Amino acid sequence: MKRKILSWFIMVMAVPPAFGEEEFRVAWPVACELGKDCFIQNYVDRDPSKMMVDYTCSRMTYDGHKGTDIRIANLARMREGVKVLAAAEGVVRGVRDGVEDVYFGDADKKTVQNRECGNGVVLRHPGGIETQYCHLRKGSIAVKQGEEVKTGQVLGLIGLSGFTEFPHVHFEVRRGKTIIDPFVGETKQTGCHVERHPIWTRDALETISHIPTAVLASGFAVEKVTAPEARDGKYNEKTFRPDAPLIMFWVDVMGILPGDRIELEIKFPDGKSLVDHHQNYDKGKAQIFHFLGKKREEEAWPKGTYTASFTLKRKKGGEYQISIFHTDKMEVK
C-alpha cells in the first residue's frame, strides 16, 4: 500500500554546496542488529516514474518512498523498547509527540492527516542537510527543539505512530528538497544503475547488508491463531500437554517476491509428517502471515519434540532453489 511521509516543519532555505564539497556521513540510527532483531523493509525509491526500484534494482520499496524503513518484528519487541539514535551530530530542528501508536488500518486515516510521520524528530546538520526520524513511540521523544545532539544520542523509541503498518523508524536524509539515498550518496542521477558513494559510516557499512526476505517471527499454539495477536506477542509457548485440542504453527515473513513458493510442515517426534501446506505467489508481498495445524484425533498426542519448518523457494535460472529454511520446535510432555 502506498504511503507518503510529510515534513511538518517550515523549510529553512539555504544555498546548498556543490556535490562533493563536504563529506557527510550517517551512522546506523537504531540500537539493533540488522538481520537479527531488525530489518530494512523499504529503501528509497529510485525510479522517478510510477514504477519503483531500490538501489540494488530490486523492488523493496514503493512508489515515491523517500527514506529507509528499519523495522522490528512485532509489538512485543516495540514494548520492550528499541532506541532510535541520532545518525550524525546536529541541532534539533523540531519534534512532535502525542500521536497514538496504532496500525493505520485500525484507525481513521483522517486522524493522521498531515501527521503521517507520527511522532518524530528532525535534525539539522551542516551544509543544509537534514535527517528525519518518523513513527516513534508515543511519549518516547528524548530531545527538545534547539538542543545540540551527538552521533548515537537517543532520540526516542521505535513506535507505530502515524501512517504505518508495522513498528519501524522511517529514516530520511535530504538537502533542501532533494532526497539523499544513504546507500547511493548525493547524486542527480536516478535509477539503480548508478555509481554509488554511500554516506554510511565505515562501521555502519560493515554491518549493513541487503536482506530481501526474512522470517520475522514464528511460534506454536493450541488454538486458532490470528496475525494481530501473534504480532502482539501471543502464541510463544514451547511446551504443551498431550491433551491439547490442536497443534498450530505460524510464521510471519517479510519480502515475498513474484514467483516465490512457500512450504510449511509440522512433523511428529518420530519424523513423520503431521500436516503440510504449500502456496505459490504470483505477486510480491511486503509481509505475509501463514499458519497451519491439526486437531487431535487420538486420545493424546505422542510425547516428544515436534518440529515445524518454513521453506521459501525462489526461482533462479528457471528452477526453484531454497532461499530460506527456518525451523521451530515444541515439546509435548
Overview of the structural elements:
- The protein has two domains: 39-207, Glucose Permease (Domain IIA) (Distorted Sandwich), CATH 2.70.70; 214-332, Sandwich (Immunoglobulin-like).
- The protein has three helices and 18 strands.
- It has helices at 75-80, 202-207, 227-231, and strands at residues 39-42, 68-71, 83-85, 90-96, 119-125, 129-136, 148-149, 154-157, 168-175, 178-179, 214-221, 239-240, 246-256, 261-267, 273-280, 285-295, 304-316, 319-332.
- Strands 1, 2, 4, 5, 6, 7, 9 and 10 form an eight-stranded antiparallel beta sheet that branches. A five-stranded mixed beta sheet has the order 12-18-17-14-15, with no helix packed on it.
- The longest helix is centred in the N-terminal third of the chain and has 6 residues, at 75-80.
- The protein is globular and about 70 Å long.
Quick summary:
With 333 residues, this protein is mainly beta. The protein has helices spanning 75-80, 202-207, 227-231, and strands at residues 39-42, 68-71, 83-85, 90-96, 119-125, 129-136, 148-149, 154-157, 168-175, 178-179, 214-221, 239-240, 246-256, 261-267, 273-280, 285-295, 304-316, 319-332. Strand 14 (261-267) and strand 15 form a beta hairpin.
